[in-house]
Write a structure and sequence with these properties.
The protein is mainly β. It contains 4 helices and 29 strands. Strands 11, 14, 17, 19, 20, 22, 24 and 25 form an 8-stranded mixed β-sheet that branches. The chain starts with a helix and ends with a helix. Bound molecules: 2-acetamido-2-deoxy-beta-D-glucopyranose (NAG) (3 copies). One 2-acetamido-2-deoxy-beta-D-glucopyranose (NAG) binds next to strand 22, strand 24 and strand 25. It holds the Pfam family Ig_3. Its main location: membrane.
């Protein structure tokens, strides 16, 4: 009995099932919902394709908030950036314009069958990098040898990588535990510059990138302060009377120093017809100081001091200006080692006899100069080219074979001569090599 009842029930159930399948096929999705990766501010749409919808309805939901966004073609959410469309057949679309950060997440296309049918699509919103303001960008200052820490924090999706470069393209120098690394670029939010030297002064750029344009960068300035140092390349300059002559000093200082020229008498030189001073910046911390002495007279001969002062200290450099006698015809325009040697020999005798200013010695100072330095020094003798306004009016003084516009100034690079080697510069050199030694250690 029980078996017959069960069989009858099964048949009934089977009949019911078959009826439903044959009579009314259930709605089905024809394709999965897409996933989208969208850049902030762009537009995007999800497409839901449903067959056999019959009287059922398609609805859109935001999965995380469970908020119903739209049913069929009716928008439910109060969001002007959303819209829904239906192509009149089997395709429904949810459009999102000007995508915002909080639009990311799962979206559901749902059909109100019992139980309901649904499918999910995901949206990732890509956000271009943004660099968070940090006061360290306003300009970091350290004394030479000190440390500087630059911080560049960037937001964005996906998380941006932060790369550091120097604006001038030079390498970044990293020092840690006595190790030194020189890198074209450095990756990381924090750039630690330790034992910073003057060459590392300048602008550093942090660039945040996550492949979503635009790629922002931020400029950080690093200032390294140190007391002035002066280098005089040509410590001995000889020029003919009546010519204009340029004396030069090379200054390194940070912050920028106040530079002045003095006579060795202590008188500060003022710009005017006689003296023209110029300063030319070579980089962030070095300058070329020029002093032009116009229409050289005998009282102009002697020592000139270039002086540089900033908050951290002071430095001086000495240039000695001598008369250059032009001997017509026989004087070569370029003096060779032998010429100078010969003169030196003859001068040392005549000098003792003449014993003073009236002597017609060609290079009154060579004797002292030579006695303390080897012959090699003379090898550095050079002629500097330059033109002076007086040139034409003094043509008669010129050796006939000097055809160029080059006044035969003889500039002796006395870098090796201890006599003219500025003691202060020497001390400066020793000081900086000492500092250097400390760094190396
Ligand atoms: C969308 O991403 C989910 C997981 O993130 C994955 O399961 C699904 O297959 C993806 N859909 C498509 C159409 O690729
Ligand atoms: C999403 O963010 C926008 C602005 O970016 C805001 O107007 C909106 O109310 C936010 N929506 C939600 C659900 O938080
Ligand atoms: C300084 O003098 C040198 C040599 O005469 C010249 O080349 C240079 O242009 C001068 N610089 C300035 C700033 O006057």
């Amino acid at each position: 009995m029980a078996a017959r009842k069960l069989a009858a029930l099964l048949t009934a159930v089977l009949h019911l099932c078959l009826c439903q399948i044959t009579q009314e096929p259930l709605p089905e999705f024809l394709a999965p919902l897409e996933n989208h990766t969208v850049i902030l501010g762009r537009d995007v749409s999800f497409t839901c394709v449903v067959n056999n919808l019959h009287s059922y309805k398609v609805a859109w939901m935001k999965s995380d908030s469970r908020a119903i966004l739209a049913i069929h073609t009716h928008l439910i959410a109060h969001n002007p950036r959303l819209s829904v469309t239906h192509n009149g057949h089997n395709t429904w679309k949810l459009h999102i314009s000007n995508v915002q950060k909080n639009d990311s997440g799962a979206y559901m296309c749902q059909v109100n069958t019992e139980p309901m049918k649904s499918q999910n699509g995901y949206m990732e919103v890509m956000i271009p990098p943004d660099i968070i303001d940090d006061e360290s960008s306003q300009g970091m200052v350290t004394n030479e040898g000190g440390n500087v820490k630059l911080k560049c924090v960037a937001t964005g999706t996906p998380k941006p990588t932060v790369t550091w470069k120097r604006e001038d393209g030079r390498n970044i120098i990293l020092r840690e535990d006595g190790q030194k690394q020189s890198l074209k670029s450095y990756e990381g939010e924090v750039l630690e510059l330790n034992g910073v030297l003057r060459q590392e002064m300048g602008a550093y750029l942090c660039i945040a990138s996550n492949n979503v344009p635009p790629t922002p960068s931020k400029r950080y300035t690093v200032n390294v302060h140190f007391s002035p140092a002066i280098k005089v390349t040509n410590q001995l300059v000889a020029a003919p009377i009546d010519s204009d002559v340029v004396l030069q000093c090379h200054v390194e200082a940070s912050p920028q120093a106040l530079n002045t020229w003095y006579r060795n008498t202590g008188d500060k030189l003022l710009p005017g017809d006689k003296y023209v001073m110029t300063e030319h910046a070579l980089n962030d911390y070095s300058w070329q100081m020029n002093l032009t002495v116009n229409e050289l007279t005998r009282p102009d001969l002697g020592e000139y001091v270039c002086s540089s002062v900033n908050a951290l200290g002071k430095a001086d450099g000495v240039v000695r200006l001598q008369e250059l006698h032009l001997v017509p015809k026989t004087t070569p325009s370029i003096l060779t080692k032998n010429d100078l040697k010969q003169r030196k020999g003859s001068n040392s005798k005549s000098r003792k006899k003449n014993n003073g200013k009236n002597g017609r010695r060609l290079y009154p100072n060579f004797e002292e100069f030579d006695s303390s330095a080897g012959e090699e020094d003379l090898g550095t003798t050079q002629i500097l080219s330059g033109s002076t306004p007086q040139e034409n009016s003094h043509k008669t003084d010129r050796p006939s074979h000097v055809t160029s516009s080059t006044p035969p100034w003889v500039i002796i690079s006395a870098a090796d001569s201890t006599k003219f080697f500025s003691l202060k510069f020497l001390i400066g050199c020793l000081g900086s090599s000492l500092i250097l030694l400390i760094f190396i250690q």
